[in-house]
Specification:
By secondary structure, this protein is mainly alpha-helical. The protein has one domain (2-125). The chain contains four helices and no strands. The chain has helices at residues 2-47, 54-63, 66-86, 91-125. The protein is elongated, with a radius of gyration of 20 Å.
Length: 127
């Protein structure tokens, strides 16, 4: 019985490490998109005079404050860490929900970036 409990703890520890890894990678991806990719795409849209949808304008405005982006992402990770540290039973759930939340943000930012890209391609091709 003690071996079963030890195996279970070891498996849970490995799962938590995997969730933290995915979580950190997703936060890093979001930071990259907001701080590196989005400003470059905004410059391309400005060069072509593309009118940006409101969702894209909001994303661009957020990306223009790198200190705020880094602070919010760090705060998000800190709150998640504190939640995982304080909880015994819900550690995996906290990490999973946090990872899914950041993943949804990545998808939303990607949508905000590529929505005007479609309009740009249509205007350049004459469609």
């Amino acid at each position: 019985m003690t071996e079963d409990l030890t195996d279970r703890r070891r498996t849970m520890g490995g799962a938590l490490i995997a969730l933290w890894t995915v979580n950190l990678a997703t936060v890093a991806l979001l930071g990259f998109v907001l701080l590196v990719f989005l400003p470059k795409m905004a410059a391309v849209f400005a060069d072509f005079g593309t009118k940006l949808p409101k969702v894209t304008l909001v994303a661009v405005r957020v990306s223009q404050s790198p200190t705020l982006v880094v602070a919010v992402l760090a705060l998000f990770l800190a709150v998640q860490y504190l939640g995982v540290s304080a909880s015994r039973e819900g550690r995996g759930v906290i990490l999973l929900v946090g990872t899914l939340f950041v993943f949804v943000l990545v998808v939303a930012i990607a949508f905000a970036v590529f929505l005007p890209y479609v309009e740009l391609v249509n205007s350049v091709s004459g469609a």
